[in-house]
Hints:
Blueprint: H1 3-7, H2 12-15, H3 19-29, H4 33-39, E1 43-49, E2 52-58, E3 63-70, E4 74-79, H5 89-101, E5 106-107, H6 108-117, H7 120-133, H8 139-142, E6 153-156
Helix pairs in contact: 3-5, 4-5
Amino acid sequence: MNEETKKHPISPMLSNITQQQVTILDQENTDGDGWDFYCNGQVTNAIVFEDEISAIVREVVYDYKVKIKVNEYEVSCSCSCDSDKVVCNHVVAVLYSWVYDQAEFTNVGDYINQLNKMDKKTLIDVMQRLLTDDPQNVKYFERHGDEIDEEFSNIEFDSLGFE
Protein backbone atom coordinates (compact mmCIF):
# COMPACT_ATOMS: atom_id res chain seq x y z
CA MET A 1 0.00 0.00 0.00
CA ASN A 2 1.50 3.34 -0.99
CA GLU A 3 1.59 6.43 1.24
CA GLU A 4 -1.28 8.11 -0.66
CA THR A 5 -3.64 5.16 -0.14
CA LYS A 6 -2.91 5.06 3.59
CA LYS A 7 -4.33 8.56 4.09
CA HIS A 8 -7.86 7.62 3.00
CA PRO A 9 -8.25 3.83 3.02
CA ILE A 10 -11.45 2.19 1.87
CA SER A 11 -13.35 0.74 4.81
CA PRO A 12 -12.95 -3.03 5.22
CA MET A 13 -16.70 -3.24 5.92
CA LEU A 14 -17.38 -1.66 2.53
CA SER A 15 -14.82 -3.87 0.81
CA ASN A 16 -16.41 -6.99 2.29
CA ILE A 17 -19.92 -6.50 0.89
CA THR A 18 -20.71 -9.62 -1.12
CA GLN A 19 -22.80 -10.43 -4.16
CA GLN A 20 -24.91 -12.76 -2.01
CA GLN A 21 -25.77 -9.95 0.42
CA VAL A 22 -26.74 -7.63 -2.42
CA THR A 23 -28.83 -10.36 -4.07
CA ILE A 24 -30.74 -10.82 -0.80
CA LEU A 25 -31.42 -7.07 -0.61
CA ASP A 26 -32.49 -7.09 -4.25
CA GLN A 27 -34.92 -9.99 -3.89
CA GLU A 28 -36.40 -8.72 -0.61
CA ASN A 29 -36.80 -5.11 -1.71
CA THR A 30 -36.97 -4.73 -5.50
CA ASP A 31 -37.91 -8.16 -6.92
CA GLY A 32 -34.78 -8.07 -9.08
CA ASP A 33 -35.20 -4.53 -10.44
CA GLY A 34 -31.86 -3.48 -8.93
CA TRP A 35 -30.09 -6.18 -10.94
CA ASP A 36 -31.83 -4.99 -14.11
CA PHE A 37 -30.72 -1.39 -13.51
CA TYR A 38 -27.14 -2.57 -13.00
CA CYS A 39 -27.14 -4.87 -16.05
CA ASN A 40 -28.56 -2.10 -18.25
CA GLY A 41 -25.58 0.13 -17.41
CA GLN A 42 -27.64 2.74 -15.59
CA VAL A 43 -25.08 3.32 -12.81
CA THR A 44 -22.73 6.22 -13.62
CA ASN A 45 -20.31 8.57 -11.88
CA ALA A 46 -19.51 6.02 -9.18
CA ILE A 47 -17.17 7.17 -6.41
CA VAL A 48 -15.82 5.80 -3.15
CA PHE A 49 -14.46 7.66 -0.15
CA GLU A 50 -13.42 5.73 2.94
CA ASP A 51 -16.72 4.22 4.19
CA GLU A 52 -19.09 5.66 1.58
CA ILE A 53 -19.95 4.98 -2.04
CA SER A 54 -22.16 7.12 -4.22
CA ALA A 55 -23.29 7.21 -7.81
CA ILE A 56 -25.93 8.44 -10.21
CA VAL A 57 -28.51 5.96 -11.47
CA ARG A 58 -29.94 7.10 -14.79
CA GLU A 59 -33.47 6.43 -15.85
CA VAL A 60 -35.17 7.65 -18.99
CA VAL A 61 -36.19 11.04 -17.61
CA TYR A 62 -34.46 11.37 -14.23
CA ASP A 63 -31.07 10.85 -12.65
CA TYR A 64 -31.11 9.67 -9.04
CA LYS A 65 -28.34 10.37 -6.54
CA VAL A 66 -27.48 7.41 -4.33
CA LYS A 67 -25.26 7.38 -1.24
CA ILE A 68 -24.39 4.29 0.76
CA LYS A 69 -22.37 4.41 3.97
CA VAL A 70 -21.22 1.53 6.16
CA ASN A 71 -19.98 1.15 9.68
CA GLU A 72 -19.44 -1.91 11.79
CA TYR A 73 -23.13 -2.22 12.66
CA GLU A 74 -25.20 -1.07 9.71
CA VAL A 75 -25.47 0.09 6.15
CA SER A 76 -27.06 3.52 5.69
CA CYS A 77 -28.43 4.52 2.34
CA SER A 78 -30.17 7.44 0.70
CA CYS A 79 -31.60 8.00 -2.75
CA SER A 80 -33.15 11.07 -4.31
CA CYS A 81 -36.06 9.03 -5.69
CA ASP A 82 -39.42 9.17 -3.96
CA SER A 83 -39.62 5.47 -3.10
CA ASP A 84 -41.05 4.67 0.31
CA LYS A 85 -38.89 1.54 0.55
CA VAL A 86 -35.89 1.50 2.89
CA VAL A 87 -33.85 0.07 0.01
CA CYS A 88 -34.87 1.10 -3.49
CA ASN A 89 -33.78 -0.37 -6.83
CA HIS A 90 -31.30 2.49 -7.33
CA VAL A 91 -29.46 1.66 -4.10
CA VAL A 92 -29.33 -2.02 -5.03
CA ALA A 93 -28.00 -1.18 -8.51
CA VAL A 94 -25.15 0.84 -6.98
CA LEU A 95 -24.38 -2.03 -4.58
CA TYR A 96 -24.19 -4.46 -7.51
CA SER A 97 -21.89 -2.02 -9.26
CA TRP A 98 -19.69 -1.88 -6.15
CA VAL A 99 -19.50 -5.67 -5.91
CA TYR A 100 -18.75 -6.26 -9.59
CA ASP A 101 -16.99 -3.06 -10.70
CA GLN A 102 -15.20 -1.84 -7.57
CA ALA A 103 -11.99 -1.06 -9.49
CA GLU A 104 -13.92 1.36 -11.72
CA PHE A 105 -15.08 3.54 -8.80
CA THR A 106 -13.20 6.83 -8.55
CA ASN A 107 -11.44 7.03 -5.18
CA VAL A 108 -12.03 10.55 -3.86
CA GLY A 109 -9.20 10.05 -1.36
CA ASP A 110 -6.70 10.12 -4.23
CA TYR A 111 -7.94 13.58 -5.26
CA ILE A 112 -7.91 14.86 -1.69
CA ASN A 113 -4.30 13.77 -1.43
CA GLN A 114 -3.56 15.76 -4.61
CA LEU A 115 -5.40 18.83 -3.25
CA ASN A 116 -3.33 18.71 -0.07
CA LYS A 117 -0.18 19.09 -2.17
CA MET A 118 -1.41 22.08 -4.24
CA ASP A 119 -0.48 25.68 -3.63
CA LYS A 120 -3.17 28.32 -3.04
CA LYS A 121 -3.21 29.64 -6.64
CA THR A 122 -3.69 26.15 -8.07
CA LEU A 123 -6.48 25.42 -5.57
CA ILE A 124 -8.27 28.63 -6.55
CA ASP A 125 -7.93 27.68 -10.23
CA VAL A 126 -9.47 24.27 -9.47
CA MET A 127 -12.34 25.89 -7.57
CA GLN A 128 -12.94 28.35 -10.42
CA ARG A 129 -13.24 25.46 -12.88
CA LEU A 130 -15.61 23.59 -10.56
CA LEU A 131 -17.86 26.63 -10.19
CA THR A 132 -17.92 27.62 -13.85
CA ASP A 133 -18.42 24.02 -14.97
CA ASP A 134 -21.41 23.57 -12.67
CA PRO A 135 -22.78 26.69 -10.95
CA GLN A 136 -24.70 24.48 -8.52
CA ASN A 137 -21.36 23.92 -6.75
CA VAL A 138 -21.65 27.41 -5.28
CA LYS A 139 -23.94 25.85 -2.66
CA TYR A 140 -20.87 24.36 -0.98
CA PHE A 141 -19.66 27.84 -0.11
CA GLU A 142 -23.04 28.74 1.41
CA ARG A 143 -23.56 25.62 3.52
CA HIS A 144 -22.99 25.33 7.22
CA GLY A 145 -20.89 22.46 8.50
CA ASP A 146 -23.72 21.02 10.58
CA GLU A 147 -26.21 20.62 7.72
CA ILE A 148 -27.03 17.15 6.44
CA ASP A 149 -27.53 16.59 2.70
CA GLU A 150 -29.67 13.48 2.73
CA GLU A 151 -31.62 11.49 5.23
CA PHE A 152 -30.19 8.01 5.42
CA SER A 153 -32.21 4.85 5.95
CA ASN A 154 -30.45 2.24 8.05
CA ILE A 155 -30.23 -1.46 7.40
CA GLU A 156 -29.02 -3.61 10.28
CA PHE A 157 -26.07 -5.80 9.37
CA ASP A 158 -27.40 -8.73 11.40
CA SER A 159 -30.46 -9.06 9.18
CA LEU A 160 -28.29 -9.37 6.07
CA GLY A 161 -25.53 -11.62 7.36
CA PHE A 162 -22.93 -8.83 7.47
CA GLU A 163 -20.28 -9.66 9.98
